[in-house]
Every structure is written in structure tokens, then in C-alpha cells.
What we know:
Blueprint: H1 2-18, E1 31-32, H2 37-40, E2 47-50, E3 55-60, E4 69-73, E5 79-87, E6 92-100, E7 106-114, E8 120-129, E9 139-143, E10 155-160, H3 161-168, H4 171-175, E11 179-187, E12 191-201, E13 207-211, E14 215-219, E15 223-232, E16 238-246, E17 253-255, E18 260-265, E19 270-279, E20 291-297, E21 300-311, E22 317-326, H5 347-367, E23 372-376, H6 378-390, H7 395-412, E24 416-419, E25 434-437, E26 442-445, H8 468-482, E27 493-494, H9 505-517, E28 522-523, E29 542-546, E30 549-553, E31 563-565, H10 580-594, E32 595-596, E33 599-600, E34 604-612, H11 628-645, E35 650-653, H12 655-666, E36 671-680, E37 684-692, E38 704-709, E39 718-725, E40 728-733, E41 742-747, E42 754-760, H13 762-779
Parallel strand pairs: 8-9, 14-21, 22-23, 22-34, 22-35, 23-24, 27-28, 28-31
Antiparallel strand pairs: 1-3, 2-5, 3-4, 4-12, 5-11, 6-10, 6-12, 7-8, 7-11, 13-15, 15-19, 16-18, 16-20, 17-19, 20-21, 25-26, 29-30, 29-31, 32-33, 36-37, 37-42, 38-41, 39-40, 39-42
Helix pairs in contact: 1-13, 5-7, 5-11, 6-7, 8-9, 10-11
Amino acid sequence: MRIRFFLTCSIAFIILMSGCARQWIDTAGLADVSGEAGLRWGIPERAMMEGTGNVLRVISGASLGADEALEMAAGGQGRIIYSSEIAAGAEASAAYRVQFLSTQGTGRIYISALDEQGTALASAGWIFTGILPPQSQAYKWLDVRYQANYVGDWVSFRINLHEFLLKHLPPEVISRASRYRFSIETGQGQHALVTQVTLFSDLSRIIRLKPVETVLKAKQGDVFSVNALLENTSNRSISNVKLDLIEPFGFGIISDGVSQQITELQPGEKRTVSWQVKAQRPDAVNLHKPWLLRFKADGYELPPEIAVYVQDIRPGRIFYVMTEDLEPIDSAGYPVKWGNANGWIDPEELTLQMAGKSEALNRLAERYGAKWTHYTAFPALRAAEWAAEKSSSGKWQEAVRTVQESIRQQANRGHEYSIHLHMDYDPKLPGNVLSYNSGTDGIWANHLRHGWAHSIAQEGDFSDPFSRAGSLFSYQAMADELSAGSPLGQLITARVGSFDFGHGSDSEALSTRAYLKAGLWGSSDADGNAGGITSGAYGREIYLAKPDDINTPAENIRETGLVEFRPTPRDFIMYDSQKAAELNRRADEGVAFFTEQKAVKPGVHGIIGFTHAMFIMGDGDWRTLQGGQFAAIEEHLLHLKTKYADTGIITFGTANDLVKAYLDYYSPAPVALYGIRKSVNAWYSEYEVQILGRDIPFDSARPQQVRVKYPLYLRDSAYRIAILKNGAEVFSAFGVPTRDNDIVFTIDDKNASYSMKVYHSRTILTMIELWRTAKGKIFSK
């Protein structure tokens, strides 16, 4: 109590002290920093001024997007030209960034070809403002003049001067050039800001690098040489060239980082250069395409590339995953009496179907080392809470407590209870209808709105519970809290109601972004979102999807979305209707497909079953929890354990386990997730941090930045997050809650143990938010 009182008083004191201050933030004003800064810009040597009233100085300011700039302010009758020169040749290039501040006066950028005496032979360039001069053999002007006074902005280019002049001036003129001059001109009151004028030799224009072999094959872990023939194609000597190998995105091939330093290369000279590289990741990670190695000279990319195929000879893993949709049903109007069929869902149906049946299935699985993934209709629990407010029986309150406690206890045993959004049950969603019948003590919803995307159109954010991101946050937070003690750690998979993920690139991209905001990496809705069959043949059961199309595997690892996983095979494993022999046959088919010579093929594979717990019937009526399909499932699990699990061919796991393993093998970048909760008290909760990306290197020489979510249910109370490395704090963030409920930190040791402490207190967070609000009001005055 003393600590809490002290912290509260401290924050209140900060608020009071902040109220005495007044601060103005100047973002537009420019300050003169000339003096020695002028030497960096080559003033006065590189500048020419005519007339009166000219101002040429170095300035700084927050709005420049650079540390400093050259201000070229021409007087009303004045003129300023700022120039840089470089030796003529195919490699002569320039990079510049300029902004003209008026529609009037002279504003030009141009390039001139100079002879050996420094006389301009011809010029070509752009007229941004002012009179367009006449065209001639010696002058070529491109008209890019501003037509309105609200369109001006920075002009930023990287250009090869030689190619530009050849395009606009006679070749015989360019052949006589000894040097090229790049100039910026202002006149008659025009002002310009210049943040960059860099002239450089782009060696990719004059040297040729030809790989000795354009296609290479290696095994994962191999170290080998990459050789290329370097040639100087120009008529002059080249000195001090630095050649580097560009590693492909995704860490498929890594080099030793050593540059090849060429002291001098004579005209026409050829020389072999070599790099040592390692086949770090199989090309399966690159979507079964070869890794492409490229090169650069003095930082500029060269055209050739080498395709490297990398085979993984390590055995893979087959996950056997049992999934089901955990939701209530009354079954009136259905051919099978899965409930009491009176037309209303009552507390007994909710309790038995969402707690009784799931626990019975879990007990069966645990006998053989398996786990269930229950995609849980958490909106139905909200509907049950709503019914509890209407009912006087007390049964709804008891049903809610029973199901919640069941989820909590069963999650602690390693079963997955992830979200399954049947939004028709949400009592507050606009457009929904939810009815309570006191006669039966039952509820009913509009099951024609049994999905997600069709009921919620906007992406939104966590503050809007009726947006896609907000609805995921609302229910994922509920799942996170009930599963807080789970050994699975962060829950990263979901299945939406009726597979209604959204159909079409715009809607699917929106949903994918919302999933990732909520910390969800895996979905099981492919093809179902378009009204198709969600199952897939073996070999097509799991993939990284496009960011705007969950039905299609990504084509480029730079552009990926969620991990999609499907029930298998196409005629899929269905626990509620198939006998043990049929379940066994389908699973045997998967093992045969994923193995070769009794070894699992490289990679991560899934044999994935599907059902609804409410559909699984015992020997008696809908309340019976033994015999019938329960017995068939048990016989099937015994077959899997004795034939495959005990021999290490398959791994029993949840969908969470499968997707984590898939990301660990295939993700193009490291993925950080919070893992098991290590400790919890009144002030903080500490979690392991899992870094996925088994073959991605990170150490002091190759640090990587990762983004990790913290539990969504702590969002409303978290005020500080710390990252610990081997128990020592290495990062701390007070700016929580963050927009997307995550923080970014650096990992630099593959062998280190990382953890995350989330400090949480609603009282402290409220005081901090009050302070922020007060501070914002003060500083805005």
C-alpha cells in the first residue's frame, strides 16, 4: 500500500509541475548555421552570384528532413548558381534533393558537358520556374514548370549524367567532353533549399562481373566458394573498388561479410574474385525457388546473379492436429438430435456441449499423448452473460462459470482454446438480434449472421469493438486471460465463424492486417471464405498465404500474410462420423505421403482433423459422453500412438504448435512470441519470449529487430514492459499501451534466454493517462 501511495503521489506531482510549464515546438523555422558549415558545401568555390540582394547560407530546421541545407535565395535582380563537377565518362552519376519555394523567378537544374579548358560545350536540364529558354543544339530544356502554388515539394533524383546527356544532346558533343558539371540555379527572387548534391562514379556502368557458375547446388549447412570474373570495360584505370556480395532476403545464403578490395584494375583487365558463403536455409523457405545472389561495387548493384538451390537433408516433422469448433447447438430442425431440440439454446446445452464434451475429448487425447485445438465460440459466452442478466434461474450464471473454469483448467493442461467468432451471439453488435425466452430459460440468435467479415466491414483498431481489429482484440483478450496459465504461451491461430474471413483482395487484406494486429499468425478458413471446401490434399495442407488472398500461397517471401492450414486430406478426417478404420486409413495416407524410406521428408507437415464437439455422440442420447464416436476416436488414437508417435514419425500437437513450427522453419524473418508465463504477482507478469526462425542467424555481428505482442488482456492495465536477456534487463518501454499492443527490441545472441515482464496496474495506468492528457493540453496552448 505504501508503494502504491508513493507512486500515485509522484505522478500527481508530475502533473501539477507540468501545469506550470508552457512549451512551444517550432517545426517550420529555419536557423542560420553557416560559418564552418559553408566549407562542407564548398562555399564560395562552388557558387557563382550576380546582381544584388542574394543570400547563400547553410541552415538547419526540423522540416528539412536532413541535418542541414543550403539556402539559395536570389535577390529581386539577382542570380545564384551552385555547381559540382566530375570527370566525364559512362560512370558519372549524381544524386540530389532540392526544393524550390516559389512559382516565380528562375528555378533550374541542368547538366553541362565541359571541354578540357572548362568551357561548356552544351547543356540539358529542367526548368521548374521562370521563362522557358529557346531550344538549340547547345541547350535542351525540359519544361516541368509548376502550374499551381500548392504542389511544390522536394525534388529527389539519382541519375546517370552520361546517359542523360546522350539522350538529349548530339553524341559528337558528348564525345568531346572532359568533365560534366551539375548546376542548380535560382534568380529574380526565387528561393531554393538543397539538402544533397552528390556526384559519384557508378562503377556498375563500366565494370563487368560474370559469375563462373550461374547455378549452384548445395546442402543446408554447406560452406562453399562463389567465384566471378571481374572486367574493366572502360578505357581508363579504375582504383580502390570495393566489391560485395548481396545476401538474398530471407537469410538463405549468408556470407562471411568480407569485401573484395581491388586496388587497381587496368583498362580491359580481367580478374577472378571469390567469396566464402554458407547455405544457411533450404530453398523450400524461398517458396521452392533458388536463392539469388547478387553483387555490388562501391555500394551500387551490378546486374548478374547466381541461383543457388539448397537441399535440406535433415528429417522433417509431421504434426497430428485435432481441431474442432466448440459451440452450442439446440438442433431443432436438424436430422440428428444433438441437443434437446426445443428451439432455444439453454444453460444445459451450453454447459454440456462446450465443457462436458470438450473435457471428455481431452481426456481421451491425453491417454495417448495428444492434445485438442478447440476453436471456441467466445461470443456465445457473451450471450450467456447477457442471458444471465435476463434469467432468474441462476443457471446461466452457473453455465458461464462452468465453461470459463473448464477452459482455464483444460488450457493449463496444454489444450488450445482459440477464438472462433460467431458474431451472431454478440449482444452488442449493431444489427444483431438476440432473444431470451423465460419459458424455456433459453436464447436464440440470428444464425444467418453466423460469420464475422460480413457483419463487420471496417478494419478499425482496438478502440472500436465493432471493427474487425477491435472484435479480434475483444475476444482474443478473453481467450488470452482464460489461457494465461497455458504452456502454449501466445495463442496465434483462429478460425472465424462459418469461415467468413472476407472474400476478395480488399477484404482479405483488411482481415489479414487485423489478425496480425491482434497477434494472430494462423488461419484455417482458406476456400471456406469463398464458399468452397476448406480441406486440402496432403502437400497442400499448410502454406504462407498472400497478404490479400488466404486461398493462394505467396509467390514472394517479401510479400506474405498468414499461415493457412487445412483439414486433411481433401476428403478429410472427420471425427464425428468416421469409424476408427476410416480415420486410420486417412492418417496412414498422410504418413505415407510425408515419409520416404521410413524417414520424414524435410520441412513441417500436418495431418489435420476436423469436427464440432457438439456433433460427437456417445452410445446414448446427446448427453452421453462415452461409447459411440468417443470409442472410435480412442481406437484411432491408439493406432496413431503405437504405430507412429512411439516411433517418432508423428508429433501430437495443437494448431498453435503446428503454426509455430511452420514459422520456425519457413518465416523469412525472425518472429517473436511470448511463451509460457514464468511468474505472476500483483505488480507484474513475466513470460518467456520465443524467437522463431531456427536457421536465421543473429548475434553481435548480425543483430535483428523483432516485434513481440504482450497479452491482450493486460492491455488495459499495462504501463511498463521490460525485456530481459539471461535475467538482466536490456530494454524498457513506458509508452504502453502501444497502438498495436507490441514493442520492438533487438536480439543479438542465439543462445540467450529472453523474457518479458509486463508491469500492470489500472491505478498507475490511469494516473499516467491523466498526466499525458494534461501535458498534451498544456503543450498545445
